[in-house]
Amino acid sequence: MLTGIIVKGIGGFYYVNVGDEVIECRARGIFREQKITPLVGDKVKIRISSEDNSGYIEEILERESVLIRPPVANVTQVVVVSSVINPDLNTWLLDKILVMAEERHLNIIIYINKADLDIERAKEFKVLYEKVGYNVILTSKLTKLGIEELRASLRNNTNVFAGPSGVGKSSLLNALNPTFKLETGEVSLKNKRGKHTTRHVELLKLEKDTFILDTPGFSSFDLDFIEDFRDLRHYFKDIEKYNGKCLFNTCIHLNEPKCAVKDALEKGQLEKQRYENYILILEELKNRKRRY
Ligand code: GDP
Ligand code: ZN
Fold first, then answer.
1. Which ligand has the shortest distance to the CA of 80?
2. Rounded Cα gap, residues 66 and 73, in angstroms
3. Is the CB–ligand 1 distance for residue 174 below 6 Å?
4. 3-state secondary structure of 227
5. In 10 A of CB 54, how many CB atoms?
6. Nearest-CA neighbor of 110 among 77, 67, 72?
């Protein structure tokens, strides 16, 4: 039996990358009986039937994670892409995406694109998020440096890119490998064309053991997975580290006395911008309508 990774699924066929080649496979009937649908990203064992020479998925190895939208298994890393301007970098949105990635326990890289349009601001964002504790890569007009740094960071991961439309995600993927040929351009045009084409989720192979999802992850930015707003504090890396240091264990760092987070904020050890976004998102979660 061969071991591989499902890179695409169309009409009951699964395309399994086994290293040097991609083999078209069907899933064994047993999966349907057990109501298990193979997912792109699944690591599988396949058998080539000696009768008809076609491939069969025999076993799905245990999944380490599953994303629902888009449906993909075993993603290990998310590259959060923003542009400095056009569209403007919105730290509130960026922090929301970071919350989603942290909740999933994914490796995170922040990639700030279009630095050519405002290098000074790009550098400010880099400093800000490096202080939080993230790996931040800047690129100016897809300079070689930014791309090679990104390529090295993607290695040995199944990567998903996240971020709003128009920040340059498709352009980046094409720069990593021109044969990917992803559609780029103005948002309005892309949306128009998107309506007429059926999208399949596909893992693109960048190099050995390194895959990239061709569709942006976290396409919906709602934080419904946080059932209790008090849990938000765990998904802000720079706030989580004060966990257990406040007077109250239950402190959500809002108005409580002797709060280590507010203390850090006053001493300049915590970025004001991050704390403000934390409060904004906290209020948003608190005020949301319960759907039941
Ligand atoms: P996506 O929606 O995130 O996939 O973004 P695209 O890759 O389609 O890019 C959106 C627009 O931004 C296109 O018109 C690109 O040419 C432009 N763009 C992408 N990267 C850069 C960059 O580094 N600098 C500048 N100035 N424009 C860029
Ligand atoms: Zn506190």
1. 1
2. 4
3. no
4. coil
5. 13
6. 77
pLDDT in tens, 67-80: 888 899 999 999 99
Q: How many helices (H) and strands (E) does the chain have?
A: 9, 13
> Who contacts 69 (Cβ-Cβ below 8 Å, separation ≥6)?
217, 218, 219, 220
Q: Which residue segments constitute the domains of the chain, with CATH numbers given?
A: 2-63 (2.40.50.140), 67-214 (3.40.50.300), 229-291 (1.10.40.50)
Mutate to test the pocket of ligand 1, among 167, 170, 171 (most ligand atoms within 8 A of CB): 171
Give the torsion sign (CA, 156, 160, 163, 167).
Answer: positive
Q: Please tell me the distance from the alpha carbon of residue 102 to that of residue 5, in angstroms, as a whole number.
A: 25
Per-residue pLDDT tens over the stretch 170-204: 999 999 998 998 888 766 555 555 544 556 799 99
Q: What angle do CA 168, 272, 115 make, to 5 degrees?
A: 25
Of 286, 276, 288, give the one whose Cα is nearest residue 90: 276
Return the beta strands (E) in the chain as ranges. 2-10, 13-17, 22-27, 43-48, 55-60, 66-67, 72-73, 77-83, 107-113, 135-138, 158-162, 203-207, 210-213
- Reference 18, options 274, 224, 208, 252; nearest CA is 208
E strands, 61-202, in order: 66-67, 72-73, 77-83, 107-113, 135-138, 158-162
Q: Are strands 55-60 and 22-27 parallel, antiparallel or unpaired?
A: parallel
- Measured from the CA of 173, which atom of ligand 1 is nearest? 7
Per-residue tokens: 196:
């007429």
Average pLDDT for the chain: 91
Ligand 2 centroid vs 220 CA: distance in angstroms?
Answer: 30
CA–CA separation, 271 vs 129, rounded Å? 9
* Cα 231 from Cα 270, distance rounded (Å): 19
Tens of pLDDT along 240-261?
999 999 999 999 999 999 999 9
Q: Are 16 and 6 in contact (CB under 8 A)?
A: yes
